[in-house]
Design a protein that fits this description.
It is a single chain. The protein is an alpha+beta fold. Helices cover 50% and strands 11% of the residues. The chain has a 4-stranded mixed beta sheet. The longest helix has 20 residues. It is globular, with a radius of gyration of 23 Å. About 19% of the residues have low confidence. Bound molecules: zinc ion (ZN).
């Protein structure tokens, strides 16, 4: 089921509870709430026509606020699994507090937890490992039509991997700022990307472009190559 449907349902239930509590007939109009929520609320109202919800006058802003702030992140089994993986990883001592799950057609294709320290691999982030495992299982080199659930907002490396893998959507739980507070700060990398090569902390020096271009020419001219 799509997320907006979960959200719409949650809003509908919150509205119904509120209406029951106040004994008031209500309608979803003129909400000053975030556009996404407003959209979902309208949608929920549409779906709830039979309940004749009518919110008017002074009650509307109060109810809108109640609804907007009563919407907790959805109970999503895939995200719950990603979070469980992150917790397990801490408890087992295998690695950092990160987990990720790749999902296709409502089924988990692959899952992974951070294994940087366990495998001496600085690239062994949960998202990268889950993407590798999913591609291996599906025998593909991109994950079109798949979604990834990560217990934390992906770092620049994982975000790059997600784009290369052409995942359809990214869901995340902890924000990058939350990770930063416990010692995983990737903001430096984002800042570095914006810097000219010469001003980065790790110097980037170009050399031998002419020779390297030979491989690109060969690729361009190669018939029947597997493009990706
Ligand atoms: Zn990462």
């Amino acid at each position: 089921m799509q997320d907006w449907r979960f959200k719409a349902e949650r809003i509908r239930v919150a509205a119904l509870l509120q209406c029951n509590a106040t004994g008031t007939k209500t309608t979803f109009t003129n909400f000053r709430v975030p556009s996404y929520t407003r959209f979902s609320a309208k949608l929920a109202a549409k779906e709830s026509m039979s309940t004749d919800l009518r919110i008017r006058g002074l009650l509307a802003p109060a109810l809108a606020l109640t609804i907007a702030y009563s919407i907790e992140p959805m109970d999503n089994p895939f995200m719950a699994r990603a979070i469980q993986l992150s917790l397990n990883n801490v408890q087992s001592g295998r690695g950092g507090p990160f987990g990720a799950v790749v999902v296709k057609d409502g089924n988990i294709v692959a899952e992974a937890a951070n294994l940087v320290t366990a495998t001496n691999d600085p690239t062994a982030h949960a998202e990268v490992l889950a993407i590798r495992e999913a591609c291996k299982k599906l025998r593909v080199f991109d994950l079109e039509g798949c979604e990834i659930y990560s217990s934390c907002e992906p770092c620049p490396m994982c975000l790059g991997a997600i784009y290369w893998a052409r995942l359809a959507r990214v869901y995340f739980a902890n924000a990058a700022a939350d990770a930063s507070k416990v010692g995983f700060d990737d903001s430096l990398i984002y800042r570095e990307i914006a810097q000219p090569h010469s001003q980065r902390q790790i110097p980037m020096i170009q050399m031998m472009r002419k020779q390297a271009l030979a491989a690109f020419r060969a690729w361009e001219n190669k018939p029947n190559k597997i493009e990706y």
